[in-house]
Design a protein that fits this description.
- It contains no helices and eleven strands.
Length: 141
């Protein structure tokens, strides 16, 4: 993680502020917590999710999901995380424990789906049908 100066980047940055090392494979998703300072979520190709305290470089919570994470989204207050996985499943997870609270089928198509929390608490998803036609859905989770 690098600290970008207030005036912007004026030279090549070679020194990181903190190195976050926990995943066994590449990291594909990095999400800042919406309300807590210095809290970062990372999801890697090893199906592991890590919630970091960036200030100390410590992995606070580390849990594994059954399948590769394609997208992730915090809810508006940061009390839940939503993941779309390669097995076409949406998973709602408690970020404090790593427990899967709810699962649902996202979209039937083979292309990856995405899901986001809306401010009113609903979940908006986008994906594809079996025939690769775009689909949208609005759900209560």
């Amino acid at each position: 993680v690098w600290q970008i100066p207030d005036g912007g980047i004026t030279r090549t940055m070679t020194e990181s502020v903190v190195d976050l090392m926990n995943h066994q494979r590449r990291v594909g998703i990095v999400l800042w917590h919406p309300s807590a300072q210095n809290i970062l979520l990372s999801a890697g190709s090893d199906n592991r999710v890590c919630i970091w305290n960036v200030g100390t470089g410590e992995c606070l919570i580390n849990f594994q999901l059954p399948e590769l994470v394609l997208s992730g989204c915090w809810n508006w207050d940061g009390s839940e995380v939503l993941f779309c996985c390669k097995d076409k499943t949406i998973r709602r997870v408690d970020p404090r424990s790593g427990d899967i609270e709810e699962e649902a089928i996202a979209h039937e198509g083979s292309k990856g789906a995405r899901a986001i929390y809306l401010k009113n608490g609903l979940v908006f998803t986008t994906g594809f049908t079996k025939h690769s036609e775009r689909q949208y859905s609005l759900r209560e989770i």
